[in-house]
Design brief:
single chain; mainly beta; five-stranded antiparallel sheet; 1 helix
């Protein structure tokens, strides 16, 4: 009936434990392994349009919250995942490691320490 069901493996964005060159990206309240579509781009602060258009270990964030180091007229910007429990430094001076999930909402088990480098709210 024109419906395509895909079964994609789950993963840990802090470990980037997908097979080969696949990426671990966010999908609602969990993370999935998907094909890397970043090509020659997808590095820290590069523009992005989709979650899988950033390299391994990076997420595609809306540019205004990612960093002033991003191209400000781009739709999104690649920024690294981080571990909030380790207070890891972020690559840009205007970024902090901020929890990926809203702490006021239930956090999916196993992802309590998942953060992303961004401008703090």
């Amino acid at each position: 009936d024109g419906v395509l069901n895909l079964c994609l493996p789950e993963c840990d964005p802090l470990l980037q434990d997908c097979d080969g060159t696949d990426l671990c990206i966010a999908n609602l309240d969990h993370f999935l392994c998907v094909l890397d579509a970043s090509g020659d781009g997808g590095k820290q602060n590069d523009p992005c349009a989709f979650e899988n258009s950033c390299d391994k270990g990076l997420a595609c964030l809306p540019t205004p919250v990612a960093s002033s180091a991003c191209m400000q007229d781009s739709q999104g910007c690649c920024s690294q995942f981080c571990d909030v429990s380790k207070l890891e430094p972020c690559p840009n001076p205007d970024q902090k490691c901020v929890p990926r999930f809203d702490p006021m909402m239930p956090i999916p088990p196993g992802f309590e320490d998942v953060g992303v480098c961004r401008i703090p709210a």
